[in-house]
Design brief:
Strand order of the largest sheet: 5-6-7-4-8-9
Pfam families: ABC_tran, ABC_tran_Xtn
Protein name: ATP-binding cassette sub-family F member 2
Family: Belongs to the ABC transporter superfamily. ABCF family. EF3 subfamily.
Mean pLDDT: 85
CATH class of the largest domain: Alpha Beta
Keywords: ATP-binding, Nucleotide-binding, Repeat
Number of domains: 3
Largest sheet: 6 strands, mixed
Radius of gyration: 28 Å
Oligomer: single chain
GO molecular function: ATP binding; ATP hydrolysis activity
Shape: globular
Length: about 600
């Protein structure tokens, strides 16, 4: 039975609906409260704390300004004359950003260009954003507490109180079209927040992100940071803010959850701004692309593939226009130089061309297309080792006698020609298998035999912890490899990983996460391994850097074992797909996109049931 408050809201909604039945949104779509989501009510995202010491430090290093160009009550947001500085570095100058309701934006740019800084400036309202926009910026995991995962997602009391108060204020001015549309949105959201509906919605989101019913009832203090980040992501989706800011949301997800999230975000009807290193994910989710380049924000319609096509066409036309213009300028300058002091008639013509040239320059010349710097990773060739290089013989493993077996009776071999991608749901043991191979974990039974000279190069998500934040990349590498006495060879080595100039000498703490990952790859390659064990290597890397990494892996003459949620990287480098599931490791018959197609079909089947 609906509650009394729900009945009253239904009646008020009916009355409000009679006022302007054909009201339109700014983007031309008919008003639909369910589609347009809700308002969180908390200007500050629930899982970020600008009042913390770290938050204050971050904000104190950011200088930002801008001018609101859209109407204060509009659903769309348009900010111009944006300037953005971080640690004194100019990231944006006189830039514009336009975010329209119902659109999903992929924010692109090279590591260090300021994507995350711009997201922080939006989230913390350092830019002029009207109060009616609520913003959720997913940055940190939910805090460990006694609350269950489900309870954390459903914490919306503040939102409910604020919405009811706002509805009362708006009821008095429903003749205003924007107020009327907002009122309908509020009533839709309040209906969603009724206890039964809210729990069902929250549970569905957690299930999609890999939480079993038992896990949903588990206290968040008992989860790892990665799982608490999933709780935070579920909460962001549950809240349905006016502006949802997601910075690398797939970083802590397996392939199953990535596919589910892609399908879920496709239905987001408010404003979504997404930073992601996955071309495949951007293609599936985005309706628009924003590119940060040379201090500006350039806007493109369509998904990532459409952006690449459009950008190539625009740059080709721009270069043609640039060449024509430069030829015209050269011709005029030559004419002026030759005839400027000739006969009166020729001198007048030269003066005319001089005026024409001055007007062209004053009006602004076509800029030459500046290509982004190419980054070239590489892994040095390793010495060949005769097989068997690595033999896994009847290996079973569990963490303790009270825990279930993660693997039972594994039996296979690997050599320097191995190019394998491990896939499977979270908890299936992909990272555990890598730890077994390098000897960080010991088999419960069976044995793992390795060639006596075999050297692993293992990348994992916690390697950033070995970096010393107040040291420079150059100093840290010299300290880590004391056998290298000369600085210049190390400078050149770091340069091969896209770290040049001040990036080598400034404190590591001033670098972006992607730039820090490049230091780790340089550190990894310097050890000259025979076999690369890469556990989510693309986290924090930009798309161009991932392409460079893929090329380096393909050129490497050693073995590669990859765990990644990036479908495109797997397609580029893996010869085989192995599925880790139910205690077994099984070769998959097909490529990674066939595997993705099967995951999508499974998700749709579950949704129907």
């Amino acid at each position: 039975m609906p509650s009394e408050s729900a009945k009253k809201r239904k009646e008020k909604k009916k009355v409000a609906g009679r006022g302007k039945p054909n009201a339109k949104l700014a983007n031309g779509d008919a008003t639909n409260g369910e589609e347009n989501g809700t308002v969180n009510g908390d200007a500050t995202p629930v899982n970020a704390d600008p009042s913390s010491d770290f938050g204050k430090m971050k904000l104190s290093n950011i200088s930002v300004a801008g001018v609101l160009l859209s109407h204060v009550d509009a659903r769309d947001l348009h900010i111009g004359q944006i300037s953005l500085r971080y640690h004194g570095v100019e990231l944006l100058t006189d830039a514009n950003i336009e975010l329209n309701c119902g659109r999903r934006y992929g924010l692109l740019g090279a590591n260090g260009c300021g994507k995350s800084t711009l997201m922080e400036a939006l989230a913390n309202r350092e830019l002029p954003i009207p109060d009616h926009f609520d913003i959720f910026h997913l940055t940190n995991e939910i805090h460990a507490s006694e609350k269950t995962a489900l309870q954390c997602v459903m914490e919306v009391n503040n939102e409910k109180i604020r919405l009811e108060k706002e509805a009362e204020e708006l009821t008095s001015r429903t003749e205003d079209e924007r107020s009327h549309e907002r009122l309908l949105d509020i009533y839709e959201r309040l209906d969603e927040l009724e206890a039964g509906k809210a729990e069902t919605a929250a549970s569905r989101l957690l299930h999609g992100l890999g939480f079993t019913p038992q896990m949903q009832a588990t206290k968040t203090k008992d989860f790892s940071g990665g799982w608490r980040m999933r709780v935070a992501l579920a909460r962001a989706l549950f809240v349905k803010p006016s502006i949802l800011l997601l910075d690398e949301p797939t970083n802590h997800l397996d392939l199953d959850a990535c596919v589910w999230l892609e399908e879920e975000l496709k239905t987001y009807k408010r404003i979504l701004v997404l930073v992601s290193h996955s071309q495949d994910f951007l293609n599936g989710v985005c309706t628009n692309i924003l590119r940060m380049f040379q201090g500006k924000i350039m806007s493109y319609s369509g998904n990532f593939d459409q952006y690449i096509t459009t950008r190539a066409e625009l740059e080709e036309n721009q270069m043609k226009a640039y060449k024509r213009e430069q030829e015209e300028i050269a011709h005029m300058k030559d004419y002026i130089a030759r005839f400027g002091h000739g006969s009166a008639k020729l001198a007048r013509q030269a003066q005319s061309k001089e005026k024409t040239l001055a007007k062209m320059i004053e009006g602004g010349l076509t800029q030459k297309v500046e290509a982004e710097k190419n980054i070239e990773f590489y892994f040095p060739d390793c010495e060949k080792l005769p097989p068997p290089v690595l033999a896994i013989e009847h290996v079973s493993f569990r963490y303790s006698e009270t825990k279930p077996f993660i693997y039972k009776d594994l039996d296979f071999g690997m050599d320097l020609d191995t190019r394998v991608a491990l896939v499977g749901p979270n908890g299936a043991g992909k990272s555990t298998l890598l730890k077994l191979l390098v000897g960080e974990l010991a088999p419960t039974s069976g044995r793992i035999r390795k060639h006596q000279h075999l050297k692993f190069g293992r990348f994992h998500q916690h390697l950033h912890d070995i970096l010393i934040m107040d040291m420079s990349a150059l100093d840290w590498m010299m300290k880590t490899f004391p056998e290298e006495k000369e600085i210049e060879p190390m400078r050149r080595f770091l340069g091969r990983y896209g770290l040049t100039g001040k990036q080598q000498t400034c404190p590591i703490g001033n670098l972006s996460d992607g730039q820090r990952s490049r230091i780790i790859f340089a550190w990894l390659a310097y050890q000259n391994p025979h076999m690369l064990l890469l556990d989510e290597p693309t986290n924090h890397l930009d798309i161009e850097t991932i392409d460079a990494l893929a090329e380096a892996i393909k050129e490497f003459n050693g073995g590669v074992i990859l765990v990644s949620h990036d479908f495109r990287l797997i397609m580029q480098v893996a010869k085989e797909i192995w599925v880790c599931e139910k205690g077994k490791v099984t070769p998959y018959k097909g490529d990674i996109f066939r595997y993705k197609k099967e995951l999508k079909a499974r998700i749709k089947d579950i949704a129907v049931k």
